[in-house]
Fold this protein.
Amino acid sequence: MSRFEPISFFDQQASGKVAQYSLLPFSFTSLDAIRYVVTNIAGEYMLLEREPLHRLVSGKLRADEPLYVDLRARHFLTDEHSKMAPDLLAIKVRTRNEHLANWTGLHMFVLTQRCDHSCPYCQVSRQSEDKLAFDMSREHAEKAVALTLRSPNPAVKIEFQGGESFLNFELLKHVVLFAKDANKHLADPKDLKFIVATNLSVATDDMLDFCAQHEIGMSTSLDGPRDLHNANRPRPGGDSYERTIAGIARARQRLGRRSVSALMTTTEASLSRAREIVDEYVLQEFGGIFLRPLSPYGFALKTRFFRAYNAERWLQFYDEALDYIIELNRQGLDFREYYASTVLTKMLTCRDPGYVDLRSPAGIGMAGVIYNYNGTVYASDESRMLAEMKDDTFLLGTVDDSFETLYTNETFLQAIDETFSYSAPMCTDCAFEPWCGADPVFHWRQHQDMVGRKPESEFCQRNMHIFRGLIARMEQDPFVRRLFTRWAHTC
Amino acid sequence: MLKLRGKIQARNTSTKQSRMVHVTSNALLPSALRHNTALLIKGDQLAELTEELVSTLREAKPFAGVLLCGAEAALAAAEQAAAGLPDLYLLPEAYVYLEMGDIVRLNPEGENISVLFRKNSPNNSLLLTERCNQLCLMCSQPPKRADDSWLLDDAYELIRMIPPGTANIGFTGGEPTLHGDRFIELISSAKLNLPGTALDVLTNGRSFKSESFTAKLGNVRHPHLQLGIPLYSDDPVRHDYVVQSRGAFDETIHGILNLKRHGLRVEIRVVVHKQTLPRLVQTCEFIARNLLFVDHVALMGLEITGFTRANLDFLWADPHDYRDTLSEAVDVLRSYGMHCSVYNHQLCLVNQDVEDVYRKSISDWKNEYLPQCTGCVRKSECGGFFSTQIMYRHSEYLQPFTT
């Protein structure tokens, strides 16, 4: 006679009968013809076929099914065995949203609108010698620094933007020194970092030395192989590629191998060259690539660049490039796609990397803010691009305004209010909502509405396709699952 | 395996009271310290027990005991030489490991000894109770119902005797928190007497479902306290089954949350066996997803003692057969950036990818190796076996390293 009871003794649900349980909040969306993605409010997911999903929601699961145990352990349902589920869910949701309380971390300074390039897709730059008309003034810059340091965020990053940032290097230098000094005098100095967006074509060694001395990271543009890059990014002499590549090497020599990141823009000419573009990034020894489509602003729209391809065509390009990157990893190369990594972090971990376009409520203003060359302040880079098209909707104010005035701007507050995607129409029912976000500027531009019409939204189309694609890839291939898990955890 | 308690012979005892004493090998110890110190003369030193030494001892202030320890013949000769000394104890050779600085309990009437503290051991733990509110399938210390609060009195006394430089001690049970507020007082006493000593408490954590009890422990502000709490499954039914107690899962989880809320260090301990293996990976995912804030996770091999022996048939799983599952479980914890360790396993039975979290963890007094381990070139990195594993069950697939 044993003192020990069998496992069935501890199961308070009657065996072989329908279990008594309550559903915890979750959403489901079809993945393919057979399976549904089911997510709880903390962003944990399971794949269920239609029949068990139907039994789950109609309260007909049996406690002795393995599926029941999984659903209970992952907080999709609760019964008398697990009263802790709401507390654990609450902690997870709180953890994911922790970063919201920090407020604005990224502060972009448009040092100048001037640029030596004349890229047809560029939204904002100007070929001009007129420094007065298109450069930021010292006075405005100092006021912007003061606003930056008002942010409650303990870590702030100042990103220099253009035009070409290095065409106004004197101001760059001044902002770095002025901000460091002002930070030092704060009662509670912040973790202050700098990054400069630059095409690297006009950066002298002296400028790079200054950046090295002050640990200023570099973010440059590389669109692909030489011919594609130079066609996309014209400049006098037609040598953008050569200058960029040489600049990357010079910067790495001074600042370190991982000091330079690069962004690519997908033009119509890029679409057929996904593998070559990835290869170029591999060749230049980048650890990954951020595949992104054109945005519907500025010159891109004027020159009909944006409408040169639709979301569907871009997604074909994205899929081809992503599959190629996976193959490269299978062959032993450590190389990642950064957008996928960001999404995977939301899918597979408790963290939210806080990527500005995938935040709910929207990241405008709260994640980043931009101080324009003329002293105006916009809620995001895209907001100032929209302004170049004579739409000032997302103008928060000017650097003469107080911190409080800027961040209580009515339109801004409205945008925040309307873009909490958990309560946005259609988003609220979407299984991908915990991983997604809102882009009010994009939707305003497309639909004159901050929420937008989701069935017509290319933002939705793009992201839903990517979410589904990432899940489908890792569900069918254990190698991809391990790879994606690594990307997720080291994003 | 070291013998920590058992029969000894007592001669000329001056008291019937059992008592805790320090062990010294210094025959010239200042007399003020001798009332609670026993003089140890062991092994080769027994031959040095000259008439002169005996007469010095007889004339000076007596020690609380004179412990003679060694092989039978030598012991008999030494007993003769020391005849007439008060409080003479004859210890079989099994206790020859005793050293200066150790602490033992001598029981003159019952003629037995318990070794309570060994200065050179990294694994000194104090049993606070044998009572428990669980009945784990693999319990190594099967619970008893009797009132054993004297164990707690012992612990208080021992804490006052343990030298302040000690790196680490442990409190075990039974379930130590069943002592309620007296448990908290003991932690407080440990902090006051041994402020620099790390203190590991093994508890099932259920008592900490009480916010106020947890707050009391937090308020002690012990600087190096860690609670080691077992969690056997992400499935509440399976956890309750392994610990044989309904509702245990929720109380343990609740306890862990409260402990972390009060800033206490928590280690989650998962014993790997046939009843936990089916959901080991899911359990690690659950820990990573829900309890990411705990300080450490230990995945532990089975010690074959206590209830485990009785339940061996439905607990035993060969580490060779679950090595890939163990790797997967470690990978989950590691990916989430959790600190984790694999305890109580043999190096040749784990995959190479878990070696960075592999620890030589088996307490020194119960660790052994098999004859075939002799030629293994990595023996010094390996934790070896519990003596009980060697006696009752170990893997069929041991593979000594040759290079």
About this structure: Chain A touches chain B at residues 3-7, 9-12, 42, 44, 69-70, 72-74, 81-84, 87-88, 91-92, 95, 349-350, 485-486, 488-489 (CB under 8 Å). The longest helix of chain A spans residues 311-330.
